[in-house]
Ferrochelatase (Thalassospira tepidiphila), 371 residues
Amino acid sequence: MSETTRKKRAIVLFNLGGPDSPAAVEPFLFNLFNDPAIISLPNPFRFLLAKLISRRRAPIAREIYDHIGGKSPLLELTQEQADALQTALNGEDDGYENRCFIAMRYWKPFADDTAAEVKAWGADEQILLPLYPQFSTTTSGSSVKDWKRACAKVGLTSPIKTACCYPTNPGFVEASAEMIKAGYDRALAKATELGIDKPRILFSAHGVPKAVITKRGDPYQSQIEKTSAAVVEKMAIEGLDWNVCYQSRVGPMEWIGPSTEDEIARAGKENKGIVVVPIAFVTEHSETLVELDIEYGELAHEKHVPIYERVRTVCSHPKFIAGLVSVVKQTQDELDEKGPDDYTVETRGWWCPDEHSCAVAKQPSLKPAGA
Ligand SMILES: C=CC1=C(C)c2cc3[nH]c(cc4nc(cc5[nH]c(cc1n2)c(C)c5CCC(=O)O)C(CCC(=O)O)=C4C)c(C)c3C=C
Ligand SMILES: [Fe+2]
Ligand SMILES: [Fe+2]
């Protein structure tokens, strides 16, 4: 097909975003805590609380980012994924000219600016692709809702189809299994050398408050479990010792567990080596490079964990990128068969497009203010 007749397809990649300088830490945190998907209070309470929490947390967060040069590497790594995905999609010769765009939720590039770029490019169709394999209203749901707001604001009207989630996508699972196997083998060799039991794999996902699962009906936790089980099956190691746990707790609410900290302490008591896998992240950032590598590494040392091996995230692993290509194709098929997204947060409550694989409540009890 000639260049002129190909349809222009925008693939919009979503991630959380991270501060690009120490001065950006506080406004980044404010944007996060002012999101009704994170703090479901009506205004002006949410705004005031977000001001308070972001001011209080900023010094702690700045210290976290100080360890990695005062800024998050998330955007650069996401740009690499976008470039790799765009190249792979444009190699498909399926009648589309693809361009990948990035919209971050809490720092630059914001949805408003990216939506204006997509409009200026003249996209005929949009595929929304969260860089979160597991669906949470606090991440993918929030980004999709914010994107649709931005589209309305800039007058971007081309049809949209959203990929909900891909917790057991073969490319994602294979890339993860391959990287974990290498880390597991290294830890196993050390365990043999030390004459101790085989290591345990800890699938450590970013936690969420318990109410997000129990009251809002978020499928996130069950999808984390599905990913972990699929990776374990792919690794095909008999008698593998593994567990799922949750990191990054903030604030006074009860969060889902077990916590990664408790699992590290348990491993210390049992004299077990651990292989820590950040299964809800597909790029490196503060939660992996600081929390896992530095803070939990030190905790493991304190708790006398004999081996601490951290597996890197899939980033632009060719199998993961191939997995994303398959998610785009599947979403395109759904667009062609069923038409564009035909719901909003207003008509469906907290958004989730995948009615089959996740039981998200359509009338959630935790409906945020203004939604
Ligand atoms: C699966 C991914 C994520 C979920 C779910 C999630 C929920 C969630 N997060 C907070 C609070 C914070 N998160 C912070 C950083 C951060 N969070 C994610 C991903 C998920 N968050 C990422 C990728 C990052 C790193 C950003 C970067 O460095 O680029 C932070 C800031 C760091 C800190 O101060 O510790 C906060 C705060 C809540 C409250 C929440 C669910 C309600
Ligand atoms: Fe977070
Ligand atoms: Fe879903």
Observations:
- Strands lie at 7-15, 96-104, 125-130, 160-162, 200-206, 241-247, 274-277, 308-310.
- Residues 16, 18, 29, 32, 38, 57, 61, 64, 72, 74, 132, 136, 138-139, 206, 208-209, 250, 280-281, 285-287 surround L6N33NVT (ligand 1) (CB under 6 Å).
- The radius of gyration is 21 Å.
- The longest helix spans residues 170-194.
